[in-house]
């Protein structure tokens, strides 16, 4: 083989992968936007004197986790024990499993702790506390626990002024287990609108866990960790006195729901689904693409907001949103692109085979449909990495 041919083959194999060469639909991650989103929250929390314990349920990726955690060992929050195992295998050692524990999952918790992972669990009943204490005694390993506090009636947890229940849980737990603190999540903040309402939600969240911690300490029980967090409140808290850490997850990527609440701009959203134009129904004003609800998810979170974004906002291949263009409907593998109702705009002139990027309603749900991120930077179409993500329980 000639030297010239060798050089030609080398040039060919080293040619960069570009967006127009990817099979669609697929998930795109703009790493520049992601880094700005991470820096924004870190800069906001620094003067408030609290640690960031990012929730990795949105990313489900070791590479993304390493960008958002403060060290390769953590701290981190997860929503499944599979996430705990996955990140533990990558070296993460400080993890909260932030979903109410059930007795049958305690064997896996103990196994991970024996591997050197400081895995803490969450609960809100005496029954769970008794199960944790019993499993801890049997294993000879004290499982650390945070008592979940219901700060806004959104989901689970102990209401913060139920002193009798809080103390009963704490006392049941320390008979073998470890009471590490209290934890809450202001899920109700997703329904807040306006800066004042979001600030009030953040203060209500803070006060709930601080008050609960005071009740436990007043009863002679330990409460070193006071943990709270949601992306909306993390960006609007004015005072975090008494809090030790903030948990948030979707801020890494943001999404259209967060934009609708006012936490970010559409231009901040770091993930999108790359799709290809596969047809037109011109009399209906439709452009058809090969990304349906299997690629975008069925999450229609913006349907409850002032601006309904359908299944997602449509952008060109560089990530710039077309005016008033949304995925208005979807079948399993077909997406219907059209102008939003009431728009006076015109459809872009797109040919069969053209590429589009669609911003998601809910980053967690859309991400869950895919198994890797195709990483780009800003307007560049060069794919600089393909980061694996995982799913399941």
UniProtKB/TrEMBL annotation:
UniProt keyword list: Lyase
Domain D-serine dehydratase-like: 270-377
One example of a Gene Ontology biological process annotation: D-serine catabolic process
GO function term, MF aspect, one: D-serine ammonia-lyase activity
Segments passing through the bilayer: none
Alphabetical list of CDD domains matching this protein: PLPDE_III_DSD_D-TA_like_1
Keyword hit for Transferase: no
Family, similarity comment: Belongs to the DSD1 family.
Protein name, as recorded: D-serine deaminase-like pyridoxal phosphate-dependent protein
